[in-house]
């Protein structure tokens, strides 16, 4: 478990209060607007700032406990910290920067290899360069590599991918996922980008102006109605826990079963019977009154309208029931009227398979 | 007062005597006198650079000859009212009287690492005299490695006072005012050039005001002051 | 506590230290800027020249001043003839001596501070429409204030302690050029001068600690101001 | 016109060669992967780095011309530069930073007001703060404000929004658009984020490893097949130039006409007859063999399959012809087979209105 | 060109300057670090103490050294009795005098450089597993190298020029303590010493320019190394 619970007042009026206990496995995303206090939490966990009062415990080891007067020094916490500004050592070449933490780790604990990291981050050609000659994205890639090679037992990442281009991001994300999955390396991850969060996170801590709005498993937090202002409307969606039932190698598709039916998605790497998670964005769900025939949309699910929330603007939020699962859909108000959508009406939900998203590596090709 | 202050350049060793005389003079005439006390060499160089002093009182003849040769001071006004004698001193607690005869063994006197403190032997007058005296006594070559040259006679005195040096060669005036040293011998007058303090008026400053003080410096009231500080009054 | 004569020396020392610092500081800032930021043919020479007063015995520095700025000196004669400025024997001359001796220290301190200023900020200022000169005054100078303060402190401290160049250049005239160190020197040549030397030494120490305290107070405020607290 | 054409070699082997002439109106996006040379171009235009050879001319004024020995000093170029790292003055409070450039602008040229900028960027509460107490996003907002208030005639923005959260981004983007539209303030904009580029840019310059891959009007560049590796597959789409034909205030919808038919989109602010641009992502287009009835999807366009490009993986790219317009669609290979899609087949394209995206402020609510 | 006597002085000056710098530099780095990075009760006092040799007339500094480190001095007597270390009248003593006088300059230069080191980098190093000490040696020290170099240069320069404290503390013993400045001083006090003074002054200037040139070469390399070129 990672238990974080503290109070910290900054000169200037900002006060942060938070308290969450999340598994020391997988990725915990800290999500919130600029100035919400995300970096401050990361800093407290790393030991860079000292809370006024509280406790920080990672995996049973107490990092900080104001009541017991414990404050473990930064270097003894063994957290890898990727800073919002990359903070490369200007006097060392890229290679020296990468090796800095590696040299200081115990040889027995070196699970993350130098060459693997260099390859992945595409920084091979930069090894002999000086940090000030690097572009913004190059710098950040080196910073990530440096933190990884320090063989941390907890990785803190403060918007690590913000300076990276989409393709590079897409390349690095799976590696982070792999790290998380294969090494049991827990990650505290700050990001504004919901797609990153959804891809990576198992657990979500949402912050707003120094207050903790919600904390818990991703799916649970995402479906809370009070998250709407935090997440923004267009990212609303439904998370589905699924089991792999079939692979269709010829078409490169897999079939997933969830409590309300089946979904066809691009082939996942998990074996039949494995558990995976899928995300359906509300805006990617269309509604039909009768089962549509001859359409390219391959995921057609029988459903019942549960609730229609007409909202300002052109859109309406629809809650559908598919089996035991509630599925969010978003359609225009005009469509609600034209189709006569009302609670209790049996309909078909059309989900384009390409819009299925997941939080596991298997879904890499499906998402954004 | 109406008259501008008169500036007198004097060797640092004249500090006390001249200050007293300046006060006496002011009490008597109301004329303010300003002094600049520094090494004779520095003062000579300053005169050369055009320093507007009226009177130069050197601690040795060489620098007065220098200013004369450069036509900075008036040779005709030269007087040498006071002199000094050169003495060997030791810390009071270890002092033993010595006599400079042929049998005097300087090295035995200094012990294994004893030192003799004096002024720099090539530039500070007391040091120059000490070198001359030791040379004429036939001791220079033996003693030279043991000589430590201080920046001024005062510094040499301090080294002896503190017992850092086993002995020192200084002026009798200096020895007279020092607390923890004893004069153990006086160098014979013939062993070194006479220690003299020549005074001259600076060229272009020979006016009644300067003259008045210059005469006062060699007058009877001044001589009392000189004597008080241990100078040899001529 | 102190005799009037001693007070005179203390007051003079303070005046000399203040004015020496006051006049040399801007020149030092300029020199540091030129040395740190530009490349030209004679730069190494200028660099050497700046450090010269430090490396030479102060007596030699004083002697060189005497040769150049004395009443018959290379420059001094014209200063006197054209502007009526007399340096030898005067407080102004003592100030010059103190300024010259402290100059390398001041330049060095300011230069180090200048080199620590993030040039990216200067570039940013220029994109916002500020000319080089404007950037210097609105960005560079404020950011190097701690260095300037440190330089000023060094200047004041070394001016308070300056002896060799002063006595050689402008002699030892009470009320004009006899600063604390010169007074201490004179005192050691008086039979009963030990007490006076000790008193003046203590005054030096107190002044030094005082200016340090002042400087560290200023420093804290400046650092808060420029956000490097 | 903004004419940029130069060669610049960096120590370490990187050489940038580019040459483009884009209108000195609207937003020109510099797009490319990390290390492609985007920042270098911006720096050359600002005068921060000097090209080895070439010309840079903005709106008739020569900034740089190696042949004629012209190199206008930075401050005389009057470009507002938002740096990748914010570069706030640490010795000035936030207000002092904002006023810095404003004070140095000519009073007659002050078109951008202090209060408006402060309001927009939400930095009112920060005015009395020192930069080092700001969070990463706060810093960047102040940096944007500072550049705007310098009343530049050309704005250079180097990933200005990378550190901002989605909501803040969404708030600032329209203001940038408004600046661009109402003040004729041209913007050179570096971004990795395709959605930003698509929202803002009129013109696109694509770079790859120091070489200019393409330069020209956004729509034109976006549809070039050689852009696929630059853009990434899932962002492929079609840009449609449309005219507003009707507003439907009751439903909050507008109808747009393009050469192939009509689209219903959330209400746009432009008057009837106005020109707007819409973007349809290939993944948001589904295909039906017959006109679907009773579906929430309100944009149904008759089309003809022009080309079916089966690709590796589960997907196939389909080119549809809708009137005179080519529309890209992306479906699974399984669907291609199931529906028997082949060139010449008449079909219906289903475009969810909520997926319509545009490059004008009118489409703010429609996009991501 | 130079007389053997002068060569001796030059060689001695170089030795003294080198060893004074060599020994004082680590202490200066430590002192600067403590002054710049820690807060404790007597800090202002330590600060004052460090600057004292600068603010006091060098002759007084020499005298204080004599009182403390002389053969009968407070500390000196034990140095001699217990370790057989004699400072007075020896080259070692001249080195100590030079080191003490240059100490404030060195500390100041290093301190300014230290304050310019981005503490964010130090934090980053600690998150990478480096202890405070390790951070100091692997990050802080390399980044402040230009300041240390500048401090060393100041130390060498002021050691080459040191006169007052040296002559007061260890006097003028040829081959032992007679450095260039002492030789120059002597020369200027001889009516016919001008030529010698000039020669030695030139040697000083050449040494100063030489060490500057060396320093600026080092500086360039260091700056390239630490990426601040
Ligand atoms: N001062 C320099 N010296 C040497 N090489 C440099 C220097 N500055 C940049 N480069 C190199 O030039 C190339 C282009 O850098 P630039 O900063 O323009 O990239 P970019 O497209 O802005 O990348 P990013 O998106 O990561 O910021 C990079 O490979 C970089 O390493
Ligand atoms: N050293 C400081 N002194 C005073 N206030 C501070 C300091 N550091 C941060 N703050 C304030 O604390 C609040 C939270 O800052 P923090 O850096 O944790 O935000 P964040 O959530 O990481 O934001 P962003 O996404 O913009 O980086 C902000 O309002 C910021 O202004
Ligand atoms: Mg942050
Ligand atoms: Mg860049």
UniProtKB/TrEMBL annotation, chains A, D:
The keyword Membrane applies. Residues 294-360 form the Mop domain. Keywords: ATP-binding, Cell inner membrane, Cell membrane, Membrane, Molybdenum, Nucleotide-binding, Translocase, Transport. InterPro entries: AAA+_ATPase, ABC_transporter-like_ATP-bd, ABC_transporter-like_CS, Mo/tungstate-bd_C_term_dom, ModC_ABC_ATP-bd, Molybdenum_import_ModC, Mop_domain, P-loop_NTPase. GO terms for molecular function: ABC-type transporter activity; ATP binding; ATP hydrolysis activity; molybdate ion transmembrane transporter activity. Residues 2-234 form the ABC transporter domain. One of its GO terms (cellular component) is membrane. Belongs to the ABC transporter superfamily. This is Molybdate transport system ATP-binding protein.
TrEMBL record, chains C, E:
GO terms for cellular component: plasma membrane. It is found in: Cell inner membrane; Cell membrane. GO terms for molecular function: molybdate ion transmembrane transporter activity. Keywords: Cell inner membrane, Cell membrane, Membrane, Molybdenum, Transmembrane, Transmembrane helix, Transport. Residues 10-213 form the ABC transmembrane type-1 domain. It comes from the Bacteria. It is a multi-pass membrane protein. PROSITE patterns: ABC_TM1. The chain crosses the membrane at residues 16-36, 48-67, 87-114, 135-160, 196-218. Pfam families: BPD_transp_1 (PF00528). Part of the binding-protein-dependent transport system for molybdenum; probably responsible for the translocation of the substrate across the membrane. PANTHER family: MOLYBDENUM TRANSPORT SYSTEM PERMEASE PROTEIN MODB. This is Molybdenum transport system permease.
């Amino acid at each position: 478990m990672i238990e974080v619970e503290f109070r910290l007042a900054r000169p200037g009026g900002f006060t942060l209060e938070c308290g969450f206990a999340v598994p020391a496995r997988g990725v915990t995303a800290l999500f919130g607007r600029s100035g919400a206090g995300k970096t401050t939490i990361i800093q407290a966990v790393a030991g860079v700032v000292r809370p006024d009062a509280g406790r920080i415990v990672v995996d049973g080891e107490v990092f900080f406990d104001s009541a017991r007067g414990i404050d473990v020094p930064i270097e003894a916490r063994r957290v890898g910290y990727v800073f919002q500004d990359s903070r490369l050592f200007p006097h060392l070449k890229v290679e020296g920067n990468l090796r800095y933490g590696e040299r200081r780790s115990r040889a027995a604990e070196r699970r993350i290899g130098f060459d693997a990291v260099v390859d992945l981050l595409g920084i091979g050609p930069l090894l002999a360069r000086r940090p000030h000659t690097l572009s913004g994205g190059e710098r950040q890639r080196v910073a990530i590599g440096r933190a990884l090679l320090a063989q941390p037992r907890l990785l803190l990442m403060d918007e690590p991918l913000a300076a990276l281009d989409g393709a590079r991001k897409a390349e690095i994300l799976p590696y982070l996922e792999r790290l998380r999955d294969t090494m049991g390396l827990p990650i505290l991850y700050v990001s504004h980008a919901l797609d990153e969060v959804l891809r990576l996170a198992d657990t979500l801590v949402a912050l707003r102006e120094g207050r903790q709005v919600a904390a818990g498993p991703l799916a649970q937090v995402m479906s809370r109605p009070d998250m709407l202002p935090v997440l923004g409307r267009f990212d609303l969606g439904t998370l589905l826990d699924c089991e792999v039932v079939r692979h269709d190698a010829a078409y490169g598709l897999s079939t997933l079963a969830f409590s309300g039916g089946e979904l066809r998605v691009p082939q996942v790497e998990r074996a039949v019977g494995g558990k995976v998670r899928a995300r359906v964005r509300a805006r990617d769900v269309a509604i039909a009154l009768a089962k549509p025939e001859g359409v390219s949309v391959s995921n057609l699910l029988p459903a019942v309208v549960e609730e229609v929330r007409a909202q300002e603007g052109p859109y309406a939020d629809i809650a559908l029931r598919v089996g035991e699962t509630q599925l969010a859909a978003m359609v225009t108000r005009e469509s609600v009227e034209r189709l006569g959508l009302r609670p209790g009406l049996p309909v078909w939900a059309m989900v384009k398979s390409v819009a299925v998203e997941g939080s596991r590596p298997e879904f890499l090709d499906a998402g954004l | 007062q109406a008259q501008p202050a008169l500036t007198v350049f004097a060797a640092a060793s004249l500090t006390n005597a001249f200050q007293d005389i300046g006060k006496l003079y002011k009490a008597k005439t109301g004329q303010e006198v300003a002094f600049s006390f520094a090494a004779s060499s520095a003062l000579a160089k300053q005169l050369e650079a055009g320093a507007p002093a009226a009177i130069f009182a050197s601690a040795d003849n060489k620098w007065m000859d220098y200013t004369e040769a450069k036509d900075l001071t008036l040779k005709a006004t030269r007087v040498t009212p006071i002199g000094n004698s050169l003495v060997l001193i030791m810390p009071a607690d270890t002092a033993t009287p010595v006599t400079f005869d042929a049998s005097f063994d300087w090295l035995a006197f200094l012990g294994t690492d004893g030192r003799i403190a004096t002024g720099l032997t090539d530039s500070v007058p007391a040091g120059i005299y000490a070198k001359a005296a030791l040379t004429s006594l036939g001791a220079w070559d033996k003693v030279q490695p043991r000589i430590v040259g201080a920046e001024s006679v005062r510094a040499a005195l301090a080294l002896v006072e503190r017992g850092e040096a086993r002995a020192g060669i200084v002026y009798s005036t200096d020895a007279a005012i020092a607390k923890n040293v004893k004069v153990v011998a006086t160098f014979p007058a013939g062993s070194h050039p006479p220690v003299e303090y020549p005074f001259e008026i600076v060229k272009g400053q020979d006016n009644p005001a300067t003259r008045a003080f210059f005469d006062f410096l060699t007058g009877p009231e001044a001589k009392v002051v000189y004597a008080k500080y241990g100078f040899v009054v001529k | 506590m102190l005799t009037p004569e001693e007070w005179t020396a203390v007051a003079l020392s303070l005046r000399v230290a203040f004015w020496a610092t006051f006049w040399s500081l801007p020149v030092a800032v300029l020199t540091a800027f030129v040395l740190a930021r530009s490349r030209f043919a004679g730069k190494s020479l200028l660099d050497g020249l700046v450090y010269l007063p430090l490396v030479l015995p102060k007596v030699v520095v004083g002697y060189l001043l005497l040769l150049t700025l004395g009443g018959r000196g290379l420059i001094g004669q014209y200063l006197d003839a054209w502007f009526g400025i007399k340096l030898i024997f005067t407080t102004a001359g003592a100030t010059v001596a103190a300024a010259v001796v402290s100059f390398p220290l001041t330049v060095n301190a300011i230069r180090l501070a200048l080199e620590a200023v993030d040039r990216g900020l200067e570039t940013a200022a220029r994109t916002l429409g500020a000319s080089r000169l404007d950037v210097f005054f609105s960005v560079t100078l404020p950011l190097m204030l701690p260095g300037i303060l440190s330089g000023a402190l060094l200047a004041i401290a070394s001016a308070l302690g300056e002896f060799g160049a002063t006595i050689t250049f402008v002699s030892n005239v009470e009320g004009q050029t006899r600063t604390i160190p010169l007074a201490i020197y004179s005192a050691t040549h008086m039979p009963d001068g030990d007490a006076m030397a000790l008193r003046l030494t203590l005054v030096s120490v107190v002044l030094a600690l005082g200016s340090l305290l002042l400087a560290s107070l200023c420093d804290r405020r400046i650092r808060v101001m420029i956000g490097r607290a």
